[in-house]
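Quarterly update from the structural biology core.
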Amino acid sequence: MHTVVELPEFIKQSKTLLSKDESTSLIAYLSVHPKSGVLIQGTGGIRKLRWASGNKGKSGSTRVIYFYHNSEMPIFLITAFGKNQKANLSQSEKNMLAKLTQLLIQKYGASL
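Predicted structure, tokenized:
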């Protein structure tokens, strides 16, 4: 079971997208299944997970953006958005996330 860290942007977005129970279930799920999200190319290891919220099901619901590097580091929940808000991350967002992953790896002392 992995430690899960909610970054401020994730907390802000998840309050409008997920109920308290859905958020708790998401964290519990990722702590056990950290590689379940799809790797996003060009981000340094960022993953995107579809997470059902309300009555929408996975395909039309919340997208959770998170970083899992290895078992020595926590899982970082970075942000979330509804499918109706956007389909994918822009190249600019991917570039920023790639820089963030490098900083997180440096900060937590894990090897690449």
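The longest strand covers residues 75-82.
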